[in-house]
Design goal:
The complex is a heterodimer of chains A (248) and B (246). With 248 residues, chain A is mainly α. Chain A is built from ten helices and no strands. By secondary structure, chain B is α/β, with parallel strands linked by helices. The longest helix of chain B has 17 residues, at 161-177. The chains are: A mainly alpha (248), B alpha/beta (246).
Chain lengths: 248, 246
C-alpha cells in the first residue's frame, strides 16, 4: 500500500506519542508523565495565564537579543569578509569569543553589570554574535567579484550595491545564521533566566525542577518548541520562498 | 561628446608565489573620436580585457591616464562583459532599471527592449534565458545608461553563428539609433570588418598598437559576406603581421 507523503509526518508524530504513552504507563512513575497528563498541565497553565506570561517574557528577550546579534553580526561579518587586514587582526578575537563557554559569559555579565535585564540581553548577544560573524564572513568572502565589478562600473551607490548585489548573495548565509541562531539563543536565554532573572521560561523551569514537577517542565518545553516551529513556518519559510523565487 | 584619450605607460601584474611579475601593457596610446566604432584585434591573452578594465576604472593599478580631451572628469561608461553579468535575482527589466539613475525612465527602457526584441521576456529571470538572450539584455543595459564610451569585451564569443549574426545586427541597429563611441574587443577579423569604422591591431603582451586600419566598406554593404571576406584577404596580404595575431 502506498502511503501519502503528507500523512507520513502525522503518522510519525502519532507513533512517537504512542511510544511515550506506553512507556509512561509501563514505568508508572511521576518522573515520566503521560502525554495526556502533560497536555492537561499545559492547558491549565495556559488558562491561568502563567505559561503565556513567562513564554512572552522569554520570547521578548529572544527577539531583542536575536535582532541585535543578527544586525551587528551581519555588519561586522560583511566588513571582515571584504577587508583582509581587518579580518587578520580580529580573527583571533573571534576564535576566543567562539570558545568561551556560554555559562562563563553569563556569569561575568551578571557579576560586572548586576542582575539586570540589559546584562541578561548582553550575555545572550555576546554568546551568539561570534557565530553570526563567522557565518556572514564566509558569505562575504565568497561574493561574486564579477557582479561587484559590474555594479562599480555602472556607478551603483554603496546602498544600491548592498541591497541589490551583496544582500541577495548573503541570503543563504543569513538564513543559516538565523536558523542556527534561534536554536542556540533560546537555550542560552533559559540559562540566563535560570541564573539571574525572576521571570521567563528558564526561571519557571528552575522552580519546576526544585519541585520535581516533570509534567510542567515538559508542558513549557513543548510550548516553546511549538513557537519556534511556528516562526519557521510563518516567517522563515515564506522568506526563503520569496528570496529564492528567481531560482529554476 | 568629446574625444577620448587613452595613454597607458605601464601596467604590470605583481609576482604571486611561483609566477613572476608580468607586464601586460607598455606605451599604449589610443585616441577615440566621438561616435566612432573601433574594434581591437589581438592575440589571446595579450591584455585586451585588462585594457578595458583600466578604461572602466575597475583597475587603478597602472601608470598613465584616461580622459576626455575637453573636460577633466572621466567619461560615462557602459560595459558589455564577456559573460553577461546579470543579477540572477532581478528580472530582465529590473536589471536594466537598476543601472539607471532615474528608475522611472520607462520610455527609454521600453524602446530599448523593443529594439532588442526583449519585450516579451522583460519579466523573466536571467536563469530562464538562453545565452544569446542574456547577451542582448547585457547590451541593452549598457545602452540604457547613454554612455560616452561603450566597452564590449568579446560579447558574442560562444554564441552559435546565426545567433551571433542576429545579435550583431541588433547591436548595429541600436548603435545607429544612439551613436556612442564603441571599443569592441574581438578575435574575429570578419566580425571586426563587419562592425568597425577603424580596426586597431594589438601585439602580444606587453600590449601595444601594431597598426590601425580604417574600414572602407560602406555600412550598407557590410551584410555582404563576400565583400567582407575579400577585404579580409586583402588586409592579410597587405599586412602579413596581422596573420600572426589571428
Amino acid at each position: 500500500m502506498k502511503l501519502n507523503k503528507q500523512l507520513l509526518p502525522l503518522l510519525s508524530l502519532l507513533a512517537f506519542l504512542a511510544i511515550w504513552q506506553g512507556s509512561a504507563i509501563y514505568i508508572n512513575n511521576h518522573t515520566l508523565p503521560t502525554p495526556t497528563a502533560v497536555a492537561l498541565v499545559f492547558w491549565q497553565a495556559c488558562v491561568s495565564g502563567q505559561l503565556p506570561f513567562h513564554l512572552g517574557v522569554t520570547l521578548l528577550r529572544l527577539l531583542v537579543s536575536f535582532s541585535i546579534a543578527m544586525l551587528l553580526g551581519s555588519a561586522i561579518g560583511i566588513v571582515l569578509g571584504r577587508h583582509k587586514k581587518l579580518d587578520a587582526f580580529f580573527d583571533n578575537w573571534l576564535v576566543i569569543f567562539l570558545n568561551v563557554p556560554a555559562l562563563v559569559t553569563i556569569i561575568l555579565c551578571y557579576v560586572w553589570f548586576g542582575l539586570i535585564e540589559s546584562a541578561a540581553i548582553l550575555a545572550v548577544v555576546i554568546n551568539k554574535l561570534p557565530s553570526v560573524i563567522v557565518t556572514i564572513r564566509e558569505g562575504a568572502r565568497s561574493l561574486d567579484q564579477d557582479l561587484l565589478d559590474m555594479a562599480r562600473c555602472f556607478g551603483f551607490s554603496q546602498r544600491k550595491t548592498l541591497i541589490h548585489v551583496i544582500w541577495p548573495q548573503l541570503h543563504p548565509f543569513v538564513m543559516a545564521a538565523t536558523r542556527s541562531g534561534l536554536a542556540l539563543i533560546w537555550k542560552i536565554i533559559l540559562v540566563v533566566e535560570l541564573l539571574g532573572r525572576s521571570n521567563g521560561m528558564g526561571y519557571q523551569l528552575h522552580l519546576f525542577f526544585q519541585m520535581f514537577d516533570v509534567a510542567s517542565i515538559l508542558a513549557y518545553t513543548l510550548a516553546f518548541v511549538g513557537v519556534i516551529q511556528l516562526i519557521e513556518l510563518i516567517i522563515l519559510k515564506p522568506l526563503d520562498r520569496k528570496a529564492l523565487r528567481w531560482r529554476r | 561628446m568629446s574625444d577620448i584619450q587613452i595613454n597607458i605607460i605601464n601596467k604590470t601584474y605583481p609576482a604571486i608565489e611561483q609566477a613572476g611579475s608580468h607586464t601586460a601593457i607598455a606605451d599604449l596610446n589610443l585616441s577615440l573620436k566621438s561616435g566612432e566604432f573601433i574594434c581591437l584585434v589581438g592575440p589571446s591573452g595579450c591584455g585586451k580585457t585588462t585594457l578595458l578594465n583600466i578604461i572602466a576604472d575597475l583597475d587603478n593599478d597602472y601608470q598613465g591616464s584616461i580622459g576626455l580631451s575637453q573636460q577633466s572628469s572621466r567619461p560615462k561608461i557602459g560595459y558589455i562583459f564577456q559573460n553577461p553579468r546579470l543579477l540572477p535575482w532581478r528580472t530582465v527589466r529590473e536589471n536594466i532599471e537598476l543601472v539607471l539613475e532615474d528608475p522611472l525612465s520607462v520610455n527609454i527602457i521600453d524602446s530599448l527592449l523593443e529594439v532588442m526584441q526583449l519585450t516579451p521576456s522583460q519579466h523573466v529571470y536571467p536563469e530562464r534565458l538562453s545565452l544569446g538572450m542574456s547577451r542582448r539584455v547585457s547590451i541593452t543595459r549598457a545602452f540604457a545608461v547613454d554612455p560616452d564610451l561603450l566597452l564590449m569585451d568579446e560579447p558574442f564569443v560562444s554564441l552559435d553563428a546565426p545567433t551571433a549574426r542576429q545579435v550583431r545586427a541588433l547591436l548595429l541597429s541600436l548603435w545607429q539609433q544612439r551613436p556612442h563611441t564603441v571599443l569592441f574587443v574581438t578575435h574575429d577579423l570578419r566580425e571586426a570588418i563587419a562592425l568597425a569604422d577603424r580596426i586597431i591591431f594589438l601585439s602580444a603582451s606587453p600590449m601595444s598598437v601594431i597598426s590601425e586600419i580604417i574600414v572602407p566598406i560602406p555600412r550598407a554593404e557590410r551584410h555582404d559576406e563576400t565583400a567582407i571576406e575579400t577585404f579580409r584577404q586583402q588586409l592579410i596580404n597587405d599586412y602579413p603581421a596581422i596573420k600572426q595575431l589571428l
